[in-house]
Specification:
The structure is a homotrimer of 134-residue chains. A five-stranded antiparallel β-sheet of chain A has the order 1-8-3-5-6, covered by helices on one side. With 134 residues, chain A is of the alpha+beta class. The longest helix of chain A has 14 residues. In chain A, 26% of the residues lie in helices and 38% in strands.
Chain lengths: 134, 134, 134
Amino acid sequence: MTVLEIVTRSREEMLDITAPLQALVRESGIQSGLLAVQSPHTTLGLTVNENADPDVQKDMLGHLRALVPQSPSFQHREDNSDSHIKVSLVGPSLTLIVENGAIQLGTWQGVYAMEFDGPRRREIWVQTIGTRTP
Amino acid sequence: MTVLEIVTRSREEMLDITAPLQALVRESGIQSGLLAVQSPHTTLGLTVNENADPDVQKDMLGHLRALVPQSPSFQHREDNSDSHIKVSLVGPSLTLIVENGAIQLGTWQGVYAMEFDGPRRREIWVQTIGTRTP
Amino acid sequence: MTVLEIVTRSREEMLDITAPLQALVRESGIQSGLLAVQSPHTTLGLTVNENADPDVQKDMLGHLRALVPQSPSFQHREDNSDSHIKVSLVGPSLTLIVENGAIQLGTWQGVYAMEFDGPRRREIWVQTIGTRTP
């Protein structure tokens, strides 16, 4: 397992982690197989979505905030129940296809850490599995 | 990696891809392992849900539309921010168990491509990993 | 593939399955690899979230109930379309990293079966893949 360290800058944020993940896959030497990406945090999720227009990320974070707002009516006293709920909605982990020594993604796709209770220092855990022969 | 090609017929649709996925697993010769299924599109998601009563699919698509409607208040100018958001909610990828040379699914389960911005020609990317000996 | 049997006690419930999953990984002898966890039911989902304050679970289930209520306006006649929708939102499967012979989880993380149409006897299907040498 490899650990990727990231820093988020606001309470809610989508951070593109595609490039460091591709670098980890290259260093692993895996040619064909799978990449598992996992958040060890209960208020940081992971997703794949559009990497072209930054407005998509604003719309995503804004609409998630409207669907699951911070609210004093939650019983959990740390004022971040909304963050926990959003993580279970977008998901705490991803499995991506590795072929030709690289994560396979569509033209407009990037891999994103979704921060829901930042800003914080965070870890992303990564495991590669597969064959090394090309 | 193998590519499955599908065609969707409406803006929002659930397309059962269980049979072609099972065929791909058979052709791979994998007896025991995992199947990773990935959408290379930012407005097409993947899920597993009921394959018996088609009304479940209508209820799912209808309720997702109510939770995340198309809206002029989104900033992304392609009028499909709702589609991007729905993909991150249902998920862009799946990992399924392969045993005895077949994807293992419950009695009422099917694997579905969830189209949120169709109709379009789409690809589904598939990777098998595991052992070939029975 | 291994089958884990659980019993849920209410219509909606989060059941911590971390300990039995860790036991299955130990018994498998896998030192480094992946664990795939899959729900064979269309009204039972899987997630990873906070295992410290039980109020988080109450807030999660309560807010999901508010976002996707049981409703006579659904067309599916079994009165559980809400349950099907919730499963596709939280997800029907998980892939987790195995290292040093154990599932790798953050300090506050537990693996949860999310029952949305209980109480019932349920199965959780589990597959390990990886290397046995430490």
